[in-house]
Amino acid sequence: MNHPAEGLPDKARRKRDAFRKVVKSLKKRPPSGLDAWFEEAHDRAFQKLDCLECANCCSTTSPMFFEKDIERLAAHLRMKPGAFIEKYLFLDTDGIYALKQTPCPFLGADRYCGVYEYRPKACREFPHTRHRKMIQKLDLAITNSSICPAVFHILEALEQSWKTSVQNKI
């Protein structure tokens, strides 16, 4: 069986301009039902995709770590926050803490998260497709479409829905 994210970066790169066109149009005239549409599309995508078959997010990227995330994880691991930072994190060019390595050191061979209950906020919210004011997250969705197969499928559905709505107005 193929990995769910196999070839995803290339597919997302090929679709990036089309996704940007849709996002640009939506930002000009945000539809009132966009948040509800995303929530339904998110649910549909995750009915078909099991994160444990993929874990591409944990394998290829690092979440942002905020102070509360560091404190929570350090306490769980019975470490001082400074020791946790020293062992696992670095400050990126934007002054945000991120993991020193990928895949995530807490990702098990079975693709389960070893610190799931204590994971960072960014992990809890990923792939960021179930937010209020999704209009503000659309650029992030384009970025995440190269990481998460579900986001890629959501944006493909959004593109199709947008094309259909544009054609119905003609």
Can you offer a commentary on this structure?
- The protein is mainly alpha-helical and 170 residues long.
- The protein has helices at residues 8-28, 34-48, 51-54, 56-60, 67-76, 81-88, 121-125, 138-144, 149-169, and strands spanning 89-91, 97-99.
- Strand 1 and strand 2 (97-99) form a beta hairpin.
- Helix 2 (34-48) packs across helix 9 (149-169).
The mean pLDDT is: 93
Low-confidence stretches: none
In the sheet with the most strands, the strands line up as 1-2
Structural class: mainly alpha
Order of SSEs, N→C? HHHHHHEEHHH
Distance between the termini: 43 Å
Largest sheet: 2 strands, antiparallel
> What does the overall shape look like?
elongated
**Radius of gyration, taken over Cα atoms and rounded to an integer in Å:** 18 Å
Put simply, the count of helices is: 9
The total of beta strands comes to 2
Strand content: under 5%
**Proportion of helical residues:** 55-70%
How do you describe this structure in short?
The radius of gyration is 18 Å and the shape is elongated. It is mainly α and 170 residues long.
Helix and strand topology:
Elements: H1 8-28, H2 34-48, H3 51-54, H4 56-60, H5 67-76, H6 81-88, E1 89-91, E2 97-99, H7 121-125, H8 138-144, H9 149-169
Antiparallel strand pairs: 1-2
